Amino acid sequence: MSAALVVGASGGIGSALTAELLARDEHEVVVAACREPAASDALRALGRVHPERLLPLALDLTDPASLADAAARVAQRVDTLTMLINCAGVLHAGALQPERRLSEVDAAALVESFRVNAIGPLLVAQAFAPLLDREARTVLANLSARVGSLGDNRLGGWYAYRASKAAQNMFTRNLAIELARRHRGLICVALHPGTVDTALSRPFQARVPPERLFTPARAASQLLAVIDALAPHDNGGFFAWDGSPVPW
After folding, report:
1. What is the pLDDT of residue 209?
2. Is 48 helix (H, G, I), strand (E, B) or coil?
3. Alpha-carbon distance 165 to 193, whole Å?
4. Residue 102, CA distances (Å) to 79, 105, 156, 193, 231 in order
């Protein structure tokens, strides 16, 4: 039994991706992972519609023990994963806010950003790699951000978020190299979803043109279209919501 796994499934993009994957009916099981799946109205609603195919999964992506337990529970239900999408990330939360200048940099905020945005996705890959299909076309996608691109950075600022996403990109590139040695059909990529109307981007939407502010449902559809079009030579790439390459 093959499955898709969405980490961060209670967020705007994550829940929309979960809904789209269930609607597509391409995977026998869609695993929706987040800290508290029972607290998500969106996931509870999807569970009522797809009680046999949706597998809610509680995990903390910063806790190796939690991830190991979650992976073991998934292994009891499915044989392999042919899609793993990590949507979890943090830009602002309480005292953690994007820095406009060097004087606003805070060590604790840097650590928290790296824990969630960089280390977390790497630990997810470590925990679930044994379940990735070794023969079939399999996609491991980490949702990154264009602001994590060194080559595209022209404005500066946002030290913690930019640097943690850049680190995530490096981890993704490393995974693409290592995991492809064991998984013949693996395509491992970083994806930039664009600006999506979620809690993460809401305080920063004022200057976003309406046509470039995507609903979560549209973002999910666009991201899955990019994933569908990926070819083996795209392994290790960084792509935007429209399929265009993003410089590392």
Report:
1. 81
2. helix
3. 13
4. 48, 5, 10, 27, 41
Encode 138-160: b = buried (16+ Cβ within 10 Å), e = exposed.
bbbbbbbbbbbbeeeeeeeebbb
CATH for the stretch 2-240: 3.40.50.720
Closest residue by Cα to residue 5 from 86, 73, 63: 86
The pTM for the full model equals 0.94
Cα–Cα distance, 222 to 230 (Å, whole number): 13
Residues of the chain where predicted confidence (pLDDT) is lower than 70:
none
Closest-CA residue to 121 (of 56, 189, 197, 75): 189
Check residue 102 and give its pLDDT.
97
Torsion over CA of 126, 131, 137 and 138, rounded to 10 degrees?
-40
Beta bridge partners of 31: 5, 55
Cα atoms in the 13 Å half-sphere on the side-chain side of 17: 33
CB 53 within 8 Å of CB 77: no
Q: What is the DSSP letter of 118?
A: I
Let me know: does 33 contact 54? Beta carbons within 8 Å: no
- Which amino acid appears at position 24 of this protein? R
pLDDT tens-place string over residues 33-55: 999 999 999 999 999 999 999 99
Tell me the pLDDT tens digit for each residue of 116-158: 999 999 999 999 999 999 999 999 999 999 999 999 988 999 9
The encoded tokens of residue 114 equal 């790296």
Residue 205 near residue 184 (C-beta atoms within 8 A): no
Provide the CA 233 distance to its chain's centre, in angstroms: 21
Which helix or strand (DSSP H or E) is residue 102 part of?
none
